[in-house]
Write a structure and sequence with these properties.
99 residues; Arc Repressor Mutant, subunit A; 52% helix; ArsR-like_HTH; WH-like_DNA-bd_sf; WH_DNA-bd_sf; Transcriptional regulator
Length: 99
């Protein structure tokens, strides 16, 4: 039988990815700057972690121009929401001493 720790999703192991998904779960869509400010990250750090979540299919990226300025927004995909909820359930089970 597999211990619950093996059911944790490695995509959310890093605190930044955990934070990105938490913010996206609480909001329909979040701009790059809002996400960067909420998590107190540098541009490069945020971009690399969001890219990893996008590659996993957990985050959807929308790019457009507002006037002449680029505007990037992020949303959690349906797959990402499900995976994150499963991850949180596994964490809760782990904290409760589940195996």
């Amino acid at each position: 039988m597999k211990h619950v720790i093996h059911t944790l999703n490695k995509a959310f192991d890093h605190r930044v990815r955990l934070g990105v998904m938490a913010v996206l779960m609480a909001n329909d869509a979040v701009s790059f700057n809002e996400l960067k400010e909420a998590l107190d990250l540098t541009d490069g750090n945020l971009a690399s972690h969001v890219a990893a979540l996008e590659k996993a299919g957990y985050v959807q990226v929308s790019k457009q121009f507002v006037g002449k300025k680029p505007n990037t927004t992020y949303t959690a995909s349906t797959e990402g929401k499900g995976a994150f909820q499963d991850h949180l359930a596994a964490l809760e089970k782990l904290l409760r001493g589940g195996s």
